[in-house]
Amino acid sequence: MQMVSSFIEIDKASHFPLQNLPWGVFSLQDDGRPRIGTRLGAWVVDVAALQAHGLFDGPLLRGTAVFDQPALNSFMALGTAAWNEARATLQTLLAADTPTLRDNAELRSQVFHPLADVIMHLPAAIGDYTDFYASEYHAANVGKMFRPDDAPLLPNWKQLPVGYHGRASSIVLSGAEVIRPCGQILPPGAAAPIFAPTAELDFELEMGFFIGPGNALGQPVSVNQAEEHIFGLVLVNDWSARDIQRWEYRPLGPFLAKNFATSISPWVVTLAALRPFRSPGPTQDPNPLPYLQTASTTFDIQLEVSLKSARMEAPLVISRSNMRHLYWNMAQMVAHHTITGCNLRPGDLLATGTISGPTADSCGSLLELAWRGSKPLTLPTGETRTFLQDGDELIITGWAQRDGYRVGLGEVYGRVTAVAAPLAPRSTLRVE
Ligand code: CA
Question: Is the pTM here over 0.70, yes or no?
Answer without folding.
Answer: yes
